[in-house]
C-alpha cells in the first residue's frame, strides 16, 4: 500500500497554495535563472497558463525539475492532472494502465504518482523496491471507492 512517508514532526504536509502564494511560501522567486530554465517550457502550456500567471508557476516547475534530478525521481502524471503538472514536470504521461506499465520499468529510485491512491498502490506493487510517493494523500477515485471487496465477492457468487 502506498503511504505517506515523512509524516512525522518537522515534515509539513503539502499546502493547497497555488501560483505566487505557493512559490513565495517556499522561498522561490521568478528570477533570471528560473526564467532561463523554464522559458523553453512555456510554449507547452501557453494555451492554458497566461503570461501573467507564468512567473508564479515557473519557479515551482524549476524547483520540481531540479529536485527530480537531485533525488533520482520520476513523476508519473495522469491525464487528469493540470497542464503544469502533466506537461511540465511529468516524465511519463497517460492513463492508469500506461502509468502502471511505466512504473514497472523506471530506473529511478523514487516514483511520484501524480494521480490517485490506487495508482500509487499499483506502482508500489509493480516496483516494490522503489519509494512511491503521492503528492496529495486526499486524492481518491470515486469509481474505485464505489465498490468494496465484499461487493466483488458477492458478484463472484
TrEMBL record:
GO molecular function, one term: quinolinate synthetase A activity
Residues spanning the signal sequence: none
InterPro entries on file: NadA, NadA_sf
Keyword Lipid biosynthesis found: no
Keyword Membrane: no
Cellular compartments per GO CC: cytosol
Entry keywords, A to Z: 4Fe-4S, Iron, Iron-sulfur, Metal-binding, Pyridine nucleotide biosynthesis, Transferase
Superkingdom: Bacteria
Protein name: quinolinate synthase
Organism: Hyphomonas atlantica
Amino acid at each position: 500500500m502506498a503511504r505517506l512517508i515523512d509524516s512525522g514532526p518537522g515534515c509539513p504536509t503539502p499546502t493547497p497554495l497555488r501560483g505566487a502564494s505557493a512559490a513565495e511560501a517556499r522561498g522561490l522567486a521568478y528570477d533570471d535563472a528560473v526564467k532561463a530554465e523554464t522559458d523553453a517550457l512555456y510554449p507547452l502550456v501557453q494555451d492554458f497558463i497566461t503570461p501573467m500567471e507564468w512567473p508564479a508557476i515557473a519557479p515551482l516547475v524549476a524547483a520540481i525539475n531540479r529536485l527530480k534530478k537531485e533525488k533520482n525521481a520520476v513523476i508519473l502524471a495522469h491525464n487528469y492532472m493540470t497542464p503544469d503538472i502533466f506537461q511540465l514536470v511529468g516524465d511519463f504521461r497517460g492513463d492508469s494502465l500506461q502509468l502502471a506499465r511505466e512504473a514497472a520499468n523506471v530506473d529511478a529510485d523514487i516514483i511520484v504518482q501524480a494521480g490517485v491512491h490506487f495508482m500509487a498502490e499499483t506502482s508500489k506493487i509493480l516496483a516494490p523496491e522503489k519509494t512511491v510517493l503521492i503528492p496529495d494523500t486526499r486524492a481518491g477515485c470515486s469509481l474505485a471507492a464505489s465498490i468494496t471487496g465484499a461487493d466483488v465477492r458477492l458478484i463472484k457468487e
